[in-house]
Design a protein that fits this description.
The chain has three domains: 84 residues, Winged helix-like DNA-binding domain superfamily/Winged helix DNA-binding domain (Arc Repressor Mutant, subunit A), CATH 1.10.10.10; 92 residues, Periplasmic binding protein-like II (D-Maltodextrin-Binding Protein, domain 2, 3-Layer(aba) Sandwich), CATH 3.40.190.10; 95 residues, D-Maltodextrin-Binding Protein, domain 2 (3-Layer(aba) Sandwich). The radius of gyration is 31 Å and the shape is rod-shaped. The strands form four sheets. Strands 4-3-5-12-6 form a five-stranded mixed sheet, with helices on both faces. It has a three-stranded antiparallel sheet with strand order 10-7-11, covered by helices on one side. 40% of the residues lie in helices and 21% in strands. By secondary structure, the protein is an alpha/beta fold. Helix 1 packs across helix 3, helix 1 crosses helix 4 and helix 5 crosses helix 9.
């Protein structure tokens, strides 16, 4: 007969009190019920755990040894119950977060992650660098809970939703020896005949669309791309090597290469928005707690944790 956790708890309390009346009072049950539980426990184990008399209760040798294991089991059960409660409240568990490679340079992702860890230290954050396509797929497959992407997205939002958009202006990264390096700002028409290093993983990527739009706006043809990479940090390193110029979000200004100058692109039409992507369904308590932190970003993003 399998042991019941209730019987283990009753036995531990009785072993501490060595008095049925006091133990029953601690457990808030009547004494006959406690006696019956202990008797059932002894029957299940096939051994006597306590010597009883009218005036005295003491542990047998088997009872003393069983008490050690019963305490361990009760402690583990208490821990499991507490973990279960914390998970149900969204205060424990695992949150799977995807992000594109450039997202850590923007303020939103590092601020939200830092604040979330500070607020919910018992939640394990599993951070996975993935492109937008993979994030969308993994959100549908439920192997990802939250995604940080750059817009525009490469596919349909069906079944998904964008909950936060953080706007970033676009800069032009140029080698310091380039003729445009001393310009205070640049217009699309200034870039018509330039050679680009581009951040693209496929033709529908957001940066490819931005490049094409700049070509259209300048009245020229599609920009001439000499080299591409899915990683914006790699793109800037190639600009640093003199391979060409590149469009990058303002947050990559923090990449301080000796041979790169960042110049604003004129006007506010062009931007690189970082967005938070999630499934279009009711949130779990864990995701709801994450959203609470995310909602604080606009107001508190300049504050420390």
């Amino acid at each position: 007969m399998p042991l019941e956790s209730r019987a283990l708890r009753y036995f531990v309390i009785l072993a501490e009190e060595l008095h049925f009346g006091r133990a029953a009072a601690r457990l808030n049950i009547v004494q006959p019920a406690l006696s019956a539980q202990i008797k059932t426990l002894e029957t299940s184990l096939g051994t006597v755990l306590l010597h009883r008399s009218r005036r005295h209760v003491e542990l047998t040798a088997a009872g003393e040894r069983f008490l050690i294991e019963a305490r361990r089991a009760v402690t583990q059960l208490d821990h499991a119950e507490e973990v279960g409660r914390q998970v149900a409240l969204g205060r424990a568990g695992v949150l799977n977060i995807g992000f594109v490679g450039s997202a850590p340079f923007a303020k939103c992702l590092p601020w939200v992650i830092s604040r979330f860890r500070h607020t919910w230290p018992d939640v394990e954050l599993s951070l996975q660098e993935q492109n937008a396509d993979d994030q969308m797929q993994h959100l549908h497959e439920r192997t990802l809970d939250v995604g940080f992407v750059r817009l525009p997205l490469p596919g349909s939002l069906e079944g998904l939703q964008l909950l936060k958009r953080v706007r970033e202006s676009i800069m032009v990264a140029v080698p310091v020896t380039h003729p445009l390096a001393n310009a205070p700002q640049l217009r699309p028409s200034d870039l018509v005949n330039e050679t680009f290093v581009a951040a693209m993983s496929h033709e529908s990527a957001g940066w490819a669309a931005t490049l094409r739009q700049i070509g259209i706006d300048s009245g020229g043809t599609s920009p001439r791309i000499i080299q591409s990479s899915p990683h914006l940090a790699t793109v800037v390193s190639l600009v640093n090597a003199g391979l060409g110029i590149a469009l990058v979000p303002d947050s990559l200004h923090s990449l301080d290469f000796d041979n790169v100058r960042y110049i604003p692109l004129e006007g506010d039409r062009y931007s690189s928005d970082v967005a938070v992507l999630m499934r279009e369904e009711p949130s779990t308590p864990l995701i709801a707690n994450f959203l609470t932190i995310l909602d604080q970003f606009d107001t508190h993003s300049t504050e420390g944790v």
